[in-house]
Specification:
- The chain has 240 residues and is of the alpha+beta class.
- It has three domains: 1-95; 96-127, no CATH class; 131-238.
- The protein is built from three helices and ten strands.
- The longest helix has 93 residues, at 2-94.
Length: 240
């Protein structure tokens, strides 16, 4: 009986010991696995941190390069603006006036019509300021409206039986008002007796001069006080 009890006690102790050994082994395995997991995670995190730092450094380098490129662009823009301002200033100093451009256009047109440069130079050298000028009576001209929706009266104006003047312009508003806008450009037709017709476009007042049979007519057109009309002031001068 006592032997059985001793045997049973030994078996229980062996069983408890085995359980303890298994627990120790399990804890050891868990500890080793935890250590390796921590080590692996730390290395992964360390690698990611290094990669992030490297990417940050590369981003800083690109940012500095972009800032340098922007500074260079600003300098280039400033230099371009300076050169444009300098070129504009030089052009303003040498560009021909409106009268000079009109004179050059007139010379080109006369040369295109067959007049030789020698002949033009002779006329220019012999030209003088006219003398013996006489003011002709002031006249009033009705402007013909383009696409007008109202009936129109009046026709060309005859000056000194030598010069014919007429004018046309777009209608003000929707075309029902019966007058033109004096602040807008109009077209004036001038024809000298025995000469060709000339068209002059621009905003009033308009000044023009033409030669007719040894006389020079200076015509000035300006907006009249009455809507739809323009005043025509003419001066006749003798050529010298």
């Amino acid at each position: 009986m006592r032997r059985r009890r001793n045997r049973r006690s030994d078996e229980q102790r062996r069983h408890i010991f085995l359980l303890f050994v298994k627990a120790v082994v399990a804890l050891a395995v868990f500890g080793v696995a935890s250590y390796y997991a921590y080590e692996a995670g730390f290395r992964v995190a360390e690698g990611e941190a290094q990669s992030a730092q490297q990417a940050l450094r590369q981003a800083e380098v690109r940012l500095k390069q972009a800032e340098a490129a922007a500074d260079n662009d600003h300098l280039a823009q400033a230099e371009t603006a300076r050169k444009l301002a300098e070129m504009s200033s030089r052009y303003d100093q040498v560009k021909p006036s409106d009268d000079m451009r009109d004179l050059l256009d007139l010379i080109r047109s006369r040369m295109a019509a067959g007049v030789t440069p020698r002949r033009l130079a002779l006329v220019i050298r012999s030209a003088e300021m006219p003398r013996g000028c006489q003011a002709l009576p002031a006249r009033r001209l009705m402007v013909r409206l383009l696409s007008a929706k109202v009936p129109q009266t009046g026709g060309p104006l005859r000056l000194d039986d030598q010069v014919t003047v007429s004018a046309e312009a777009p209608s003000a508003g929707d075309g029902r008002d019966g007058w033109f806008d004096p602040a807008a450009a109009i077209k004036v037709h001038l024809a000298a007796e025995g000469g060709r017709e000339t068209d002059v476009s621009g905003v009033l007042p308009i000044d023009y001069a033409l030669a007719v049979k040894g006389d020079e007519y200076h015509v000035t057109l300006s907006a009249a006080s009455s809507k739809g009309w323009i005043d025509v002031v003419t001066e006749r001068c003798h050529f010298r």
